[in-house]
Write a structure and sequence with these properties.
mainly alpha, 6 helices, disordered N terminus
């Protein structure tokens, strides 16, 4: 029992050996400084590398949620992943249309817009007596795709007009 409560040996596992030192990569603007290190560990935190990883994971979770709902696969992950898709897909589409706002305002408006899209789709399908879970997920995906494509087309048209003017 004393082996389980003695934690002094664990400190050797978590600390890097003093002789070799941690491997350091130079940052984009020069040698690494204390701003790029994790507190007291000496391990470099790559600046900005986590955002694409988080975005990719969120896209994968949303895609799995949509696929589980559309394929009608019974899984314990179906409900949370589908709910994640129903919030994230329209939020990303609304956020793509709001490029002029600061990031916090854009996130708040995109979240509100996502809830509004979900409610409008549900209300329309209920009023038409056409409500199904699969149909709701497909309709939210279609509306989100349409909003995203409209925002992308508007941005491209704005760039084309600026290039012709110069």
């Amino acid at each position: 029992m004393s082996e389980l409560t003695d934690l002094s040996d664990l400190s050797e596992l978590s600390e890097p050996p003093e002789s070799s030192g941690p491997a350091r990569r130079p940052g984009p603007t020069g040698p690494p400084g204390p701003a790029h290190e994790h507190a007291g560990t000496g391990v470099m935190a790559p600046p900005g590398d986590s955002l694409p990883m988080v975005a990719g994971a969120a896209t994968a979770i949303a895609g799995v949620g949509a696929a589980l709902a559309l394929a009608d696969i019974g899984s314990p992950l179906r409900a949370p992943f589908t709910l994640f898709f129903l919030i994230v897909a329209p939020a990303c589409a609304v956020g793509a249309a709001l490029r002029g706002l600061d990031p916090l305002s854009r996130a708040v408006v995109a979240a509100g817009g996502a809830v509004a899209v979900d409610l409008l789709v549900a209300q329309t399908m209920l009023a038409l007596h056409a409500w199904t879970v699969r149909g709701g997920v497909a309709a939210v995906a279609a509306v989100s795709l349409l909003l995203f494509l409209l925002a992308h087309a508007r941005r491209r048209r704005g760039r084309a007009a600026k290039s012709r003017a110069s």
